[in-house]
Write a structure and sequence with these properties.
Number of domains: 1
CATH superfamily: Fe-S cluster assembly (FSCA)
CATH topology: GMP Synthetase, Chain A, domain 3
Order of helices and strands: HEEHHE
CATH architecture: 2-Layer Sandwich
Number of helices: 3
Strand content: 25-35%
Distance between the termini: 24 Å
Strand order of the largest sheet: 1-2-3
Largest sheet: 3 strands, mixed
Number of strands: 3
Structural class: alpha+beta
Shape: globular
Length: about 80
């Protein structure tokens, strides 16, 4: 499943990079939780949780129904 998640992240990464940020995949658990770390401008952005939920999580769940949620680990 990790490879599938990486492929989806490659699709959303350019939007994050346009705003000076990035995303790093840390782990995908057996129960479908994706753990990521936001980098660059995204790490300190007040809108990062909205980006995570409405951008990254939505894209992942749409492509990989087994994903239950996405959580950001601290930098």
């Amino acid at each position: 499943m990790r490879e599938k998640v990486e492929k989806v992240l490659e699709l959303v990464r350019p939007a994050l990079q346009r705003d000076g940020g990035d995303i790093e995949l840390l782990d995908v658990t057996d129960d479908g939780v994706v753990k990521v770390r936001l980098r660059g401008a995204c790490a300190g952005c007040a809108m990062s949780m909205m980006t995570l939920q409405f951008g990254v999580e939505r894209a992942l769940k749409q492509e990989i129904p087994e994903i239950t949620r996405v959580v950001a680990e601290p930098v």
